[in-house]
Design a protein that fits this description.
By secondary structure, the chain is mainly β. The chain has one helix at about 60-65; strands spanning about 10-20, 30-40, 40-50. Strands 1-2-3 form a 3-stranded antiparallel β-sheet, with no helix packed on it. β2 (about 30-40) and β3 form a beta hairpin.
Length: about 70
């Protein structure tokens, strides 16, 4: 239709990770991976979440940030 702009739907996946720290060379590991799907910037209800065993202790400093303990 003349004068009407069509908008393409945008689809995005927002990822979040939590770790035992910031330096993998010192043994820091990922402990959580999460994702949500957005369509036109609105959550679709589709999500992903997994906890990962870091096979090490979680430092107190990291626990203060994300709340996870070993």
């Amino acid at each position: 239709r003349e004068g009407v702009q069509s908008r393409a739907m945008t689809r995005q996946i927002v990822l979040d990770t939590e770790t035992t720290g910031l330096d993998p060379l010192k043994g820091d590991r990922v402990i959580e991976i999460a994702a949500i799907e957005l369509a036109n910037l609105m959550p679709t209800g589709r999500t992903f979440h997994v906890l990962v065993d870091p096979e090490r202790d979680v430092p107190e400093e990291s626990t203060r940030v994300h709340g996870f303990t070993a």
